[in-house]
Structures are given as structure tokens and as C-alpha cells.
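Predict structure. Chain length: 127.
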Amino acid sequence: MNGLEKVEQNLIDLGVSYQEIGERTWVVDDPTRGIARLAITVTDEIVFFRAKIMDAPKQKRLEFFETLLRLNAADLVHGAYGLDDEDVVITDTLEHASMDKSEFEAVLDAIGVALSQHYPVLGKFRD
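Prediction complete.
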């Protein structure tokens, strides 16, 4: 089974609410998992998971970025927070050749938990 088939089959098997938006991309909106607008993209070897969290704040930027780094180091099971232009994102990757359903589910669950637990911490920085 190729990466595209694995991703779609995992989404179906896990009962995740998703929409295919391109040949190699799906968007997951699954409130039961705490996930909104999570893009999943498949390349030749990698499955990318990415969701925009918020715009980077204009005020208290140093404190905000320090908070993100601390969350990355101590509180994320999978993936990491990052900055894409002025978008704060959470990302993760898996190699689809060795990816199984439990790994796929672990990424979804970790992102959902991170978003729900970190929202109060990061939300205070919203402009």
C-alpha cells in the first residue's frame, strides 16, 4: 500500500472527519480529537501534518517565542511548534513506508491534546 492509500485508510479506520482538498492533501476537522484545519500532505517518502495555531503576536514576542520553545522541549509528545512567516504552526512528520495506524493516531492525538492544553497558555498572547 502506498503512502496515499495508507493515509486515507488510516483516516477511514480511525473514523476521523476529513476532506480531500488535493491529490495528496487532506484537511482534518475533528472536534472530538480537538483538531481543526490540520493539513495532511503526502510526498514521495514523508507524511506531513501541519496546522496553523495563530498569528504571531506583535506584542510580547520574546516572551511568546520563549513559551513556544519551552512547550516544544517539555510538553510536546510529537511534533513541534514553528513559525511560517507570521503564522504559528504545529507540525509533525512520519515516514509512510514504515507508518502504521497506531503511529498515525498518536500524531493526531498528540496534536489534539497539545492544542487543547496549550490554548490557554498561547491564547493570552493574541493581539
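Summary: Strands lie at 18-22, 25-30, 35-42, 46-55, 80-84, 87-95.
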